[in-house]
Design goal:
17% strand, single chain, 149 residues, alpha+beta, five-stranded antiparallel sheet, 29% helix, 3 helices, HIT family, subunit A
Length: 149
């Protein structure tokens, strides 16, 4: 299996099929989950942590999996906080649109345009990175993740 791809466990699930998140936004494989830079970087550092197997609810995981997943999410959050000097990290585990466990981790910065609002309610034009800026952001996060435990 190539980097950024996931094992198909539910053919109807776009996370299992590997069509979301984008493979070219892959950052790291943490064991139970994979890390991707979100398509929209209006909130710099917005990252997605995706469970590698299909499950829609935390209670569908074995206790050891839940513990490991939370530790992996924590590792990414700590890394994002350090890289971006975040005032706060938002943790979003919704699943309404994609019933596959995935966390949105969003650093909220000192210059946040709407610090009291969830990112979903902040009107903005998406910031899409590509080419060198995308690669640099992914490499920066991947390198930092190797150093944070």
């Amino acid at each position: 299996m190539a980097q950024g791809e996931s094992a198909v466990t539910d053919p109807a699930c776009k996370a299992c099929r590997g069509t979301w998140p984008r493979a070219d936004h892959f950052v790291a494989d943490l064991g139970l989950s994979k890390v991707y830079l979100h398509d929209d970087q209006f909130f710099p550092g917005w990252t997605v942590v995706v469970l590698q197997r299909h499950a829609a609810e935390l209670f569908q995981l074995a206790p050891t999996e839940r513990f490991q997943l939370i530790e992996e999410v924590n590792r990414v959050a700590k890394t994002l906080s350090e890289i971006f000097q975040a005032k706060k990290i938002n943790y979003e585990l919704l699943g309404n649109q994609l019933p596959h466990i995935h966390w949105h981790l969003i650093p909220r910065l000192a210059d946040d345009p709407a610090p009291l609002e969830p990112v979903w309610r902040v009107p903005h034009e998406p910031v899409r990175l590509s080419g060198t800026p995308l690669r640099e952001q992914i490499d920066r996060l991947a390198l930092a993740l190797q150093q944070v435990r």
